[in-house]
Amino acid sequence: MNKSVILHVIGWILTVEAAFMLLPCIVAVIYKEQSGFSFLITIALCLLIGIPLLLHKPKEKKFFSKEGFVSVALSWIVMSIMGALPFYFSKEIPHYVDALFEVISGFTTTGSSILSDVEALSYCMIFWRSFTHWLGGMGILVFILTILPITGGESMHLLRAESPGPTPEKLVPRIKSTSKILYTIYLGMTILQIILLVLGQMPFFDAVTISMGTAGTGGFAIKNSSIASYSIYNQNIITVFMILFGVNFNIYYLILIGKFKNAFKSEELRYYLFIIFSAIMMIAINLGGITHFTHFIQVSAFQVASIITTTGYATIDFNTWPTFSKTILVFIMFVGACAGSTGGGIKVSRIIIMLKSLKKELSYLIHKRSIKVIRFDNNKVAHETLRSINVYFISYMIIFAASIIGISIDDFDFATNVTAVAATLNNIGPGLEIVGPAGNFGGFTDFSKIILIFDMLAGRLEIFPMLVLLAPGTWRK
């Protein structure tokens, strides 16, 4: 284990996090808020720990997948521990476990909250809460890779450990260039959404924070009514951008370089859009039938886009919907968005490959001599990818079941427990019943909140980094 490189990466994380905290400080100055001092204290602590780690240059810069997974897992934990301090120091979230839950929900783009009154927060805290979504959406280490002096295969281990999906890809030969391209697309789409929302007469502060939540598919709203109080125009803009941010960013790169045919041949994109369209139509019909069909299309489109992309915004309390509509939403909670997007969930590509694997196995049972090759986007799926998907799904189900058992100690109803775990493990935000759009996670005990915190981190980091970090064999010499 190359511990010196891991500590060096953590030094970068703390230093960059300190720099990012200057933005909520500026917001505090604009709105003349005392809470801004809590960010200054946290910045000092980040630099006090981070700079010595950064200045201590590792003698051996080479590291492998094990170090990559550990670096990513520890970086996200350390980043969250420090990121929670402004909430705690300012006493706006006076209990540290609650502050940690809130900031991890932000960084992992989950959007589950312990707050019953979001509007009671100061502007700088609301900004930081939304900004954590934007940082976590593309991945803080993807940003770090644009400046980190690690080259070659080593940086790919960091990208692989943090990027969502079964097979993260390089867009160009150099990882640093890939990271810059991803963040350029990400920033450009965020700015475009801000402009369109402002044109819809949304206040600038609201447009910035809502866009950061949409871009990261996070879902921290800045009003207690989530998005319900905004105009239909702005709700539709948010709907479109939630769907766009749930698309694999490789497709946007192909469009930018003029390879439109390759971009729209994506099998995952076709299934993703088909699932969205089907879910919208079924829910709209179930909600209102033919009467006021246009209204129900708009309402269901927003919620379907919000849930499948794991954003978690709401314009209505879907907890009151018919059972069929709620069942559709729970189903797409697990499906999630596309690989290589900012969305969570199992990912559409994994679902497709698992279904093709099932079809291949059934074909083999019927015709023993048949030889079937699983293809995805006309490319043969490697055995390593199939094995990784199978292990991922087994790990996912074990964590899902264990988490439900763990939080059931709080004695909430079954629907609350199941959807609370589904909402955090899939990085969605709201669930049903007590943790529905009109509720929050504040009623859980600290023990249950820690379980859900683990689920949020495991879901965002695709499970393996957290398992590698906790595996005893990782730390043996």
UniProtKB/TrEMBL annotation:
- Note one Pfam family from the annotation: TrkH
Q: Sorted alphabetically, which keywords does the UniProt record give?
A: Cell inner membrane, Cell membrane, Ion transport, Membrane, Metal-binding, Potassium, Potassium transport, Transmembrane, Transmembrane helix, Transport
Taken from the UniProt entry, a GO cellular component term is: plasma membrane
| Main subcellular localisation | membrane
Q: Which residues form a coiled coil?
A: none
Annotated GO MF terms: metal ion binding; potassium:chloride symporter activity
Subcellular location per the Swiss-Prot or TrEMBL entry: Cell inner membrane
What is the topology of this protein in the membrane according to its UniProt annotation? Multi-pass membrane protein
- Which domain of life does this protein belong to? Bacteria
Q: Which residues are noted in the entry as K(+)-binding?
A: T109, T110, G218, T310, T311, N427
Q: InterPro entries under this entry? A: Cat_transpt, TrkH
Name the residues that span the membrane. 7-31, 37-56, 68-89, 131-150, 181-202, 237-257, 269-290, 328-353, 389-409, 450-471
Keyword flag Membrane: yes
Q: Which PANTHER family does the UniProt record give? A: TRK SYSTEM POTASSIUM UPTAKE PROTEIN TRKG-RELATED
Give the family per the record.
Answer: Belongs to the TrkH potassium transport family.
| Identification of the protein by name | TrkH family potassium uptake protein
